[in-house]
Amino acid sequence: MVEEIKKIAVQYLTEKAVSLMTGRALSTLRNDRSQGRGLPYVVMIGRSIRYDLKDIQEYMESRKVYTSDVPGPGP
User: Fold this and answer.
1) What tens digit of pLDDT does each residue of 15-46 get?
2) Short-list 53, 43, 41, CA closest to 13
3) Looking at the chain, which terminus has fewer C-beta neighbours within 10 angstroms, N or C?
4) Exposure on the CB side of residue 37, measured as CA atoms within 13 A
């Protein structure tokens, strides 16, 4: 049971962790939330905000730039 809870907890990141992973400032993440844009997030108990790790990984993958030296994924 404890291992299952730990696994679930790892899937959700704090805004500070997301800021470090993406290079987006905390203020940008907060402004985006208040404007109804940006990365999807979850409101936990109270005002605690969490981001799903899968959403962050998809966001970063969607912005990957491929150079002519390294072919990207197919069409």
Assistant:
1) 999 999 999 999 999 999 999 999 999 998 88
2) 53
3) C
4) 4
Domains located in the chain, CATH noted: 2-62 (1.10.10)
> CA nearest 42: which of 15, 5, 2, 3?
15
d(CA 10, CA 51): 10
Six-digit token string for 39: 């990365």
CA–CA separation, 25 vs 59, rounded Å? 16
CB 40 within 8 A of CB 51: yes
